[in-house]
Amino acid sequence: MSTIVLLLITGLGLGALYFLVASGLSLIYGLMGVLNFAHGSFLTIGAFIGWEVARRLSDGSWWALAAAMLTGAVVGALVAAATEFFLIRRLYNRHIEQVLVTVGLALASVALFEGIWGTDPTYVTSPSWLGQTTEILGARIPNNRFMLIVVAVLVLAAIVLFLKFTRYGLIIRAGVENRLMVTALGIDVRRAFTLVFAIGGAAAGLGGVLASIYYGYVSAHIGGSLLIFAFIVTVIGGLGSLAGAAIASVLVAVLQQFANFYLGGTGDLAVVLALAAVLLLRPRGLLGAKA
Amino acid sequence: MSTNSSTTNILTVRNLYGRIEGQQVVEDVSFDVPDTGVTALLGRNGVGKTSTIKSILGLIDRSGEVTLGGRRVDRLPTHKVVQLGVGYVPEDREVFGKLTVAENLKLAERSAHPNRALVEELFPDLVQRQAQLAGTLSGGQQQMVSVARALLNQNRLLLVDEPTKGLSPKIVGEVAQALLAAAKTVPILLVEQNLQVIRQLADRVVVLSGGRVVFTGEATELLDDPERIQRYLGVHSGSERSSAGQTDATVRA
């Protein structure tokens, strides 16, 4: 029983990380039809800059962690908005070029990060409570999983409230359905594009700082490795569906944890098989729109 | 090509070409829309009427000259053309199905003082259904949302594309009445397939054939001439059915 509880809660924690990356990917694809392979770079730069700030302020304190999270989100948002403005905006409806540019940016950014911070992982110091465990039903759960879950829930709630109750949220929801019709109502949908990139980048940058807590280090490849699973989550949840991304994040991460434990470390294989099953049986994903 | 000399033109279209994925769908189209009344854009099925409307708005690739109230708009993006005072009612309604009726209308509001009173007067049913998802409305109700979106704003021109397509006769009458009321305050360029509605609404007609304009004039000049109707629109104005199988009052757009 304690093992199941442990796997479930650690799976939820990992799912929280996946969601922070996948939410932006899903919104960006839903509104703009852009598969953004550079999204992992927003996460990595957020993690590195966030922890540079934390290290200089007060390594291991809560307020330094808060500053790191805020910095990671802001840096992620700025880099993502700049990427949309300078690179993607010229390539809407040119999907091959979008893939080439975002893949190229992802590769170049990894090289840049390695040039600045080196190829070895940079180990981070977090508040001591996060390195401890809490016992639930006999399972000793690492405390950082709780923080990941709480932050992801807050981010989900913030995005939902933004989409539901703001003018730009309305534009984004309408644009996901039919962006040409949004422009035909006199709305400059390009601003919404930049905003969605910024929101996605903020979530990814925040996710970068949290990923460094989860793994205990930052590296130039941290974004890329999470991006693969975030893409899988996005496809399983249904491209463009925020709720689908949230549900799929949890399902994929929990499946991964259970398969790793009970099936001899085959978590990644189980996730890929789940992806294949969804593509075969329900190609639009769990909550994706019908083609 | 010029229209009645006592009116000025709100829209002039000169040598307009439109392309969809590289294919020419509008070819060298020129016509004027006066600043009052309803101008109907007619033609047989697939002749490029919807594409002409979309070209004017910049929703498809275009070239040529489009002037709105004396200002060139053919190089402006769609949202800027609309912001200059163009309301658009698209073919197939294109309401946002996952938004409520109220959200659909809210999204369309371009000013701080939208004309909600007019919309509520013309479409009282929508007031009752504000919280309903637009995707769950009937076709006629969706068309009301689509027309209402255009009427919320102070426009200088309405582009209305097949507003009665697929609707029941009762709803066709309601939509026609709404457009008739709107036409008192704003000029309309109307694409329509129902000859009865055209007869009811249109002051002038522009007929396209092969992507080009082949007839421009008063609506009655065309509608009272069965031979022209047959030649330009492919239907008889009498009681027999057209070769395409439509009733006498219908032109397939």
UniProtKB/TrEMBL annotation, chain A:
It comes from the Bacteria. It is found in: Cell membrane. The keyword Heme does not apply. It is a multi-pass membrane protein. Keywords: Amino-acid transport, Cell membrane, Membrane, Transmembrane, Transmembrane helix, Transport. One of its GO terms (molecular function) is transmembrane transporter activity. InterPro entries: ABC_transp_permease (IPR001851), BCAA_transport_permease (IPR052157). Coiled coil: none annotated. GO terms for cellular component: plasma membrane. Its main location: membrane. It holds the Pfam family BPD_transp_2. One of its GO terms (biological process) is amino acid transport. The chain crosses the membrane at residues 6-27, 34-51, 63-87, 99-117, 146-163, 193-215, 227-255, 261-281. PANTHER family: ABC TRANSPORTER ATP-BINDING PROTEIN (PTHR11795:SF442), BRANCHED-CHAIN AMINO ACID TRANSPORT SYSTEM PERMEASE PROTEIN LIVH (PTHR11795). Belongs to the binding-protein-dependent transport system permease family. LivHM subfamily. This is Branched-chain amino acid ABC transporter permease. It comes from Cryobacterium glaciale.
Automatic annotation (TrEMBL), chain B:
Residues 234-253 are annotated as: Disordered. Keywords: Amino-acid transport, ATP-binding, Nucleotide-binding, Transport. Residues 240-253 have a biased composition (Polar residues). Residues 11-235 form the ABC transporter domain. It comes from the Bacteria. Gene3D superfamilies: P-loop containing nucleotide triphosphate hydrolases. SUPFAM superfamilies: P-loop containing nucleoside triphosphate hydrolases. One of its GO terms (biological process) is L-amino acid transport. One of its GO terms (molecular function) is branched-chain amino acid transmembrane transporter activity. Pfam families: ABC_tran. Coiled coil: none annotated. Belongs to the ABC transporter superfamily. This is ABC transporter ATP-binding protein. The lineage of its organism: Bacteria, Bacillati, Actinomycetota, Actinomycetes, Micrococcales.
